[in-house]
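> example.struct
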């Protein structure tokens, strides 16, 4: 699959998440048994088009792995375990949090990642990003300094990714925001300059260059 993705997407640097190039973006977590949560996630039907995101899924949070994630990776702080799933091919935007994020690949998928320090005066060129292939079942920690967004699919069936974050992340703001880049609680985001849908929703355009489309 990785060789095929590299061949079909020569305009972006493409790696396996197990390659050393991933080390500044995150790390693979091998000590978690994700079988049960993946089995639970697969019961959730994909939308016919576009993607969906649920910050907190009670079915996930009732599993033992949710407590393990809270204690091991968020220092016992209240933690939400949600789901991002559906269909996505384009880079479109990038976001970041002031905390790490735990991702569990329910299906094979691609993450397009960058570094927060490459944003200069609110802008970043897409050439600063790299694509990483995650085989199904892979569990990773995405660092707080890593720019990321909705996963990209590698088959017509779409993608599924469990997402764990501090409780309240990605939920609606309850105070008037002063920072134009903050979009939800603990969520800062900039859109690709060509993504009119997000810009019309109030997301500040800041990514220049190619809006990468992951082909498979």
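> example.seq
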């Amino acid at each position: 699959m990785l060789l095929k993705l590299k061949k079909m997407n020569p305009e972006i640097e493409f790696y396996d998440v197990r390659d050393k190039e991933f080390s500044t973006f995150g790390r693979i977590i091998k000590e978690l048994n994700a079988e049960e949560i993946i089995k639970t996630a697969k019961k959730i039907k994909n939308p016919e088009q576009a993607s969906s995101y649920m910050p907190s899924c009670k079915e996930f949070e009732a599993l033992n792995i949710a407590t393990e994630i809270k204690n091991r990776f968020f220092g016992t702080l209240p933690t939400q375990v949600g789901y991002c799933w559906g269909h996505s091919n384009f880079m479109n935007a990038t976001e970041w949090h002031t905390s790490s994020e735990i991702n569990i690949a329910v299906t094979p998928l691609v993450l397009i990642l960058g570094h927060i320090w490459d944003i200069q005066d609110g802008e970043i060129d897409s050439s600063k990003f790299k694509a990483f292939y995650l085989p199904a079942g892979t569990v990773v920690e995405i660092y707080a300094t890593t720019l990321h967004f909705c996963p990209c699919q590698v088959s017509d069936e779409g993608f599924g990714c469990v997402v764990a974050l501090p409780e309240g992340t990605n939920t609606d703001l309850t105070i008037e925001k002063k920072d134009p880049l903050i979009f939800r609680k603990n969520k800062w985001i900039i859109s690709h300059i060509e993504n009119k849908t997000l810009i019309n929703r109030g997301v500040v355009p800041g990514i220049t260059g190619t809006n990468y489309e992951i082909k498979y």
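> remarks
The longest helix spans residues 64-73.
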